[in-house]
Structure formats: structure tokens, C-alpha cells
Amino acid sequence: MTEELNKILADFQARLAEVSTLQQLDEVKTVYLGKKGPITDVMKNLRSLPKEEKAAVGQAANVIKSQMTEEINAKRSELEEAAINEKIASEWIDVTLDEAPSKIGALHPVSTIQYEIEDIFTSMGFTVLDGPHCETDHYNFEALNIPKDHPARDMQDTFYFDNGAILRTHTSAIQVRGMENIKPPFKIIGPGKVFRVERTDASHEAAFHQLEGMVVDKDINVANLINTMKTLLSEIFKKDVNVRLRPGFFPFVEPGFELDISCMICNAKGCSVCSQTGWVELMPCGMVHPNVLRSGGIDPEEYSGFAFGLGLDRLVMMRYQIEDIRHLHSGDIRFSGQFK
Ligand code: PHE
Fold first, then answer.
1. Does residue 253 have its Cβ closer than 6 Å to ligand 1?
2. Cα–Cα distance between 275 and 260 in angstroms, integer?
3. Which of 61, 102, 106, 139 has the fewest CB neighbours in a 10 Å radius?
């Protein structure tokens, strides 16, 4: 009988050694210690044993039963501990780890220069105006002395909508709206994005930025225009800049000029930005045409004025020595990240 009990114990230990989950452990427990298990059988059979053996077998069966219970409990603790360790290992968080460095954005260089120029002009008494990107033919062309059949429209071909609206080709549209809303004398600027049909290259983009300026008062003349432009440029570049004035045609000014500055990319030696001339066209300008004043409700006999347009993208290129205007709209953060 004792032999049989030892065999039961050996079988049990062999099965227990293979147990690797709590569920398997419960199964083994039921098989060996349950109501239908071999130990229960032995106990049930005690009655049929001779008296002398009864006590000895009963005792041995109890010893083995408690040994099995102990081994099961030990195995249970072992499995539970392993489960906890596994959980700790898989859910481990390193709370000392630094968070990923956050990326701090910055203004686009065109915006930066626009705000700087706005500051310069407001310090000179100018008011900053805004206008819509999507304009009517009237504000963009007609009121600026560019009637439907005027060849100047060719130079400013743009994007047309079915309803006749267009994407503005210049910020001059803002001066028309300004004249409608403000009584002279006034000094205004209107910065913003403008659009043209362009064959893009290093110095031409289909969308770019201008800053329009207009001064209307009594007895305004070309000397006032030149002085304002020179003051502006020396403020922007923080040094004296070489400029030249050439006659230039714009239907809305008379006389009209092109103000060029010497190329700062190549120090006037000649490069792709200045088309090898050493000069960069920066500010078209001139005395406001009487027709324009008239269409803005201003009497040209009483008032005169000057107007100018500044290419903001060009200015940025000159200041940071950027050789291709297309970088400005590339959206490449390796480019824009340099202007923090
Ligand atoms: N609006 C003109 C252009 O975009 C520039 C300009 C503005 C010229 C003001 C003269 C006076 O080409």
C-alpha cells in the first residue's frame, strides 16, 4: 500500500513539474486531491484493510496529502510571482526619460520683414490698410487707369474666376479702396500677397508679396518720393544703399520710375538674381496719375501724391542672401528653420 502511495506521489510530482500556468495547476490539484482522486480512493478503501495496516496507511496517506498540498502551494506562489514579474517588465515606464523636445515655430521671413516695414512706416505717420486677395476688375485694373483693352494687362495676367473676380495682381488695389475710405491728406501702406501667371524661375513666382504705399497731400512732388524711399531703405538695411531711378511705365503713375538697388547677393558683380546686371529692381514708383485720383474721388487740381510698390520677397532675398525666390514657398522646414 505504501508503495502505491509513493507511486501516486511520484506521478503527481512528474505532472506538477510540467505545470506552467495557474489553470494547469488547478487541474492537477483536482485530479490528485479532488473527491475522485487517488488519495480519496485510498482513504475510502481503508475500511477493507486489516486492522494493523489501517492506522499506518491512513497516516501515510495524510502525510502524502499534506506534502502534495504544500508542493501545490509552493508552485502557486512561484507562478504568481512570475506573472507579476512579467507584468512589471512589460508595463515598465521610465519616468526619468526626458520628453521629446518640442519644436518651436517662427515667423516666415516675409512676415518678419513685412512687420518691420510696417513699423518703419507707422513711425513716419502711415496707416496700415488691408484688402482682399480676390478682387474685382474695377479695383485691380479699371480704377488704376488700366481699361480693358490696355496692353499693360498683359504684364499682369492673372487667375480669373467664372464670376469675373480675379486674384489681385498687385497691392495697388488696396490704394483704391483706401482713397474711397479716407479723405486726403493721408499716408497709407497696404501689404499683402499678390498673384500672377508667371513662368517661375530664380526671381519670379506666381504668388509673391508686395507692400504698396501712397501719400496724398497738397504740393507732393518727386523729391518727397525719393526722400521717403531713401529713408525707408536705410532703415531696412541699416546702411546706405546704392539706388538708381529709371523711367518706368505704369498706367497709374505719371511720371513713373523703377527704383533699383545694387545687388547685395553678389555685391553688384552679377548673378542669377540680378540677371548679371548688378542691379535689382526693387521699387516701382511714381506720381499718382490724375485719373487714379479722380476715380478715388480726389480732385487732382487740389491734391497730388506719390505711390510705390515694394517687393517683399526680393527684400528678404537681399537681406538673407537667398539665391532663389522659390525657396520662400517651398514649405521646406530645413529652409524656414534658419530664420528663427
Ligand atoms: N503695382 C505695380 C506693380 O505691381 C507697382 C507700382 C506700385 C508701381 C505703385 C508704381 C506705383 O507692378
1. yes
2. 13
3. 102
Contacts for 193 with CB less than 8 Å, ≥ 6 apart: 133, 207, 208, 209
Closest C-alpha among 285, 289, 251, 294 to residue 151? 251
Mutate to test the pocket of ligand 1, among 154, 205, 210, 257 (most ligand atoms within 8 A of CB): 210
- In the reported structure, the alpha carbon of residue 321 is separated from the centroid of ligand 1 by a whole-number distance in angstroms of 24
Cβ–ligand 1 distance for 172 under 6 Å, the answer yes
**Position of cell 492537477?**
28
Q: For residue 192, give the amino acid letter.
A: G
Specify which residues 137 forms β-bridges with: none
Burial degree of 175 (CB within 10 A; 0-12, 13-18, 19+): buried
Q: What angle do CA 222, 307, 317 make, to 5 degrees?
A: 105
194 CA closest ligand 1 atom index: 4
Determine the average pLDDT of the residues in 173-188.
Answer: 96
pLDDT band (50, 70, 90) for residue 237: confident
Looking at this protein, which amino acid is placed at residue 43?
Answer: M
The reply to whether ligand 1 has any atom less than 6 angstroms from the CB of 196 is no
**Ligand 1 center from residue 302 Cα (angstroms):** 23
pTM of the model: 0.68
Other residues' Cβ atoms within 10 Å of the Cβ of residue 88:
9
Q: Characterise 207 by phi-psi region: left (phi > 0), alpha (psi -120 to 50), beta (else).
A: beta
51-60, 207-216, 269-278, 327-336: which is most confident: 207-216
Query: Of 132, 200, 189, 191, nearest to 166 (Cα)?
Result: 132
Q: Within a 13 Å sphere around the CA of 152, how many CA atoms are in the beta-carbon half?
A: 15
- d(CA 323, CA 235) in angstroms, rounded, equals 23
> Measuring from atom 9 of ligand 1, which residue has the nearest CA?
308
For the segment 262-279, what is each residue's pLDDT rounded down to a tens digit? 888 788 899 987 899 999
